[in-house]
């Protein structure tokens, strides 16, 4: 009795990797292995990289707005039309300045998500789920292992960013002591350069943390979707009983059988046709066969395909409607022709051999 219970518990333990079917099901529900930290780290890194590349043009654009404001805009008459024109002009100038950075951030955000999960758009995720408003479920999530991991991750991020900022600033401590002796432009240049260094260093450090988080999310996801041996068996039985799956499997088997049959047509000595509805390919080797053998047959589309392949490989095609129908109905692929059809088939083979200028022996 105890052994039986132990076996039941063992069979219910989720120790097996998820099957492709299970993975498709959980993906439809929006359950995927994804790290938000990857997107955040890459976005931050490329944002500072853009500032490093386009920082000069960014500053020049801001200065142009400043100059135009004090040289032109403040001299305009205050009216509704001038205010509207001023707003549109300032908005256009601001868009020109920040558009390249926003475009890069957008591309990086999309690319990092595609790299992690591929293209996926699930409308079910935007539906209102009132179960998520349950206070008890909220408390369970608050004191769960996942919440603890997120807390540790947040502390690590704060610690890493703090350490990076301290290290970068500490290396520049001597420069801070002489800032009072520099003009405003040099000070601005120093501060901008320091901010870029801090941003790039912090982004690189967060990227390392993000990679670790992605590995953890992948491991956690794989563990979550594990299946028991019984679940795999049930899934297999379900697939076996699914009419759609059975239909697809039969279609694949039929296609494979037809392809194999078509590949045998070039070996035939003759193809007997109806001429359009039936085609039967016959092969005969007097040294190895006791009687001619049907190596391919088909009706309608398959018959046309057999004739097409026969023509390509210069296999003789003979039209004989009664014989083609009789062979199609009486002989399966791989079988020899029945005794009552020997004479009819023999005459056709003799004719073919005579036309080809070769002799394989006559059937009696």
From TrEMBL:
Organism classification: Bacteria, Bacillati, Bacillota, Bacilli, Bacillales
Keyword flag Transport: yes
InterPro entries with a match to the protein in the record: FlhB (IPR006136), T3SS_substrate_exporter (IPR006135), T3SS_substrate_exporter_C (IPR029025)
Family: Belongs to the type III secretion exporter family.
Membrane-topology descriptor: Multi-pass membrane protein
A Pfam cross-reference name: Bac_export_2
Keyword annotations from UniProtKB, A to Z: Bacterial flagellum biogenesis, Bacterial flagellum protein export, Cell membrane, Cell projection, Cilium, Flagellum, Membrane, Protein transport, Transmembrane, Transmembrane helix, Transport
Record's subcellular location: Cell membrane
Its biological purpose: Required for formation of the rod structure in the basal body of the flagellar apparatus. Together with FliI and FliH, may constitute the export apparatus of flagellin.
Record's protein name: Flagellar biosynthetic protein FlhB
Protein species of origin: Neobacillus paridis
SUPFAM superfamilies in the record: EscU C-terminal domain-like
Keyword Transmembrane in annotation: yes
Membrane-spanning intervals of the chain: 32-54, 97-126, 147-170, 190-216
Main location: membrane
């Amino acid at each position: 009795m105890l052994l039986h219970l132990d076996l039941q518990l063992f069979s219910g333990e989720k120790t097996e990797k998820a099957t492709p079917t299970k993975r498709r099901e959980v993906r439809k529900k929006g359950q995927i292995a994804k790290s938000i930290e990857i997107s955040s780290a890459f976005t931050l890194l490329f944002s500072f990289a853009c500032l490093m590349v386009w920082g000069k043009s960014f500053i020049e654009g801001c200065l142009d707005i400043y100059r135009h404001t004090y040289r032109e805009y403040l001299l305009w008459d205050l009216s509704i039309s001038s205010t509207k024109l001023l707003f549109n002009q300032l908005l256009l100038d601001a868009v020109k300045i920040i558009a390249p950075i926003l475009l890069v951030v957008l591309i990086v955000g999309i690319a990092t998500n595609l790299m992690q999960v591929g293209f996926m758009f699930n409308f079910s995720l935007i539906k209102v789920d009132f179960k998520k408003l349950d206070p008890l479920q909220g408390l369970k999530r608050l004191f769960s292992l996942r919440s603890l991991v997120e807390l540790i991750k947040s502390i690590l991020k704060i610690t890493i960013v703090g350490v990076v900022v301290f290290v970068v600033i500490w290396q520049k401590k001597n420069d801070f002591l002489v800032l009072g002796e520099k003009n405003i432009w040099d000070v601005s240049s120093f501060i901008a350069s320091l901010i870029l260094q801090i941003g790039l260093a912090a982004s690189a450090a967060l990227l390392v943390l993000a990679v670790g988080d992605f590995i953890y999310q992948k491991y956690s996801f794989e563990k979550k979707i594990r299946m028991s041996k019984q679940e795999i068996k049930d899934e297999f039985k379900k697939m076996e009983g699914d009419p759609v799956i059975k239909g697809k499997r039969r279609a694949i088997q039929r296609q494979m059988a037809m392809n194999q049959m078509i590949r045998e047509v070039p070996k035939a000595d003759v193809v007997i046709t109806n001429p359009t509805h039936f085609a039967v390919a016959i092969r005969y080797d007097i040294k190895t066969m006791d009687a001619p053998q049907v190596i391919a047959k088909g009706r309608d589309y398959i018959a046309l395909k057999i004739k097409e392949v026969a023509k390509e490989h210069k296999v003789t095609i003979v039209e004989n409607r009664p014989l083609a129908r009789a062979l199609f109905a009486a002989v399966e692929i791989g079988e020899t022709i029945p005794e009552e059809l020997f004479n009819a088939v023999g005459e056709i083979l003799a004719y073919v051999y005579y036309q080809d200028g070769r002799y394989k022996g006559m059937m009696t």
